[in-house]
Known about the structure:
It comes from Nocardia transvalensis. This is AcrR family transcriptional regulator. InterPro entries: Homeodomain-like_sf (IPR009057), HTH_TetR (IPR001647). Keywords: DNA-binding. The chain is built from 10 helices and no strands. The chain has 213 residues and is mainly alpha-helical. The chain has 2 domains: 1-67; 69-212, Tetracycline Repressor, domain 2 (Orthogonal Bundle), CATH 1.10.357. α1 packs across α6 and α4 runs parallel beside α7 (136-148). Mean pLDDT is 87; it is low at 131-139.
Amino acid sequence: MTVPRDVAGGIARRSLAEREADYTGEVRRLLDAALELMRAAGTASAPRVADIVAAAGLSNDAFYRHFRSKDALVAALLEDGTERLYGYVAHRMGKASTPADRVRAWVTAILLQAGTEIAATTRAVLWNSSGSGQGVVSGAGTAGARLAELLHEPFAELGSATPEFDASLAGHAMVGKLAEFLWRRIEPAPSDVDRITAFCLRAVRATGADGRI
């Protein structure tokens, strides 16, 4: 039996798809404009919503259509940055051939975020999340959990009885250490990569089948 086409539904779906594309573009422009302004200002001053809207070439209505406040925008920037970092770290890990090498690649890729240019941008965004830099606490929580997912498989291959739990500990510790490098304006040395990698590997290999040391 031939089913009549839902013309009204089809039109509505096309309209929603077009609107979604428009809204996605607006959000991207707001995020990019905010990031650029924060990068330029550093921790010396915080761009206002009006500054971000003007730089994005949009209206206040467009801003508040997507974000309830500037804090919501900064939270989105942190989430967007975490996803970009996740992709970069996964790419670096994909080039490693052994579980231990993948752990080292994970550590190396994350610590690279404390490099001079990247670090300045990250500090600026975190500083804007609270006006004093304390936003790193909430930002690190989300980033640590997300980045930890990349360690589940190598930790399991290395013999961890509780790879997700161990990866969670490593993820939060790693992001906490990264935050320390960022705020102290210290660029990690190769020896830091060695020590943190060794710490992660020792922690996993020292855990027995029952999860005990």
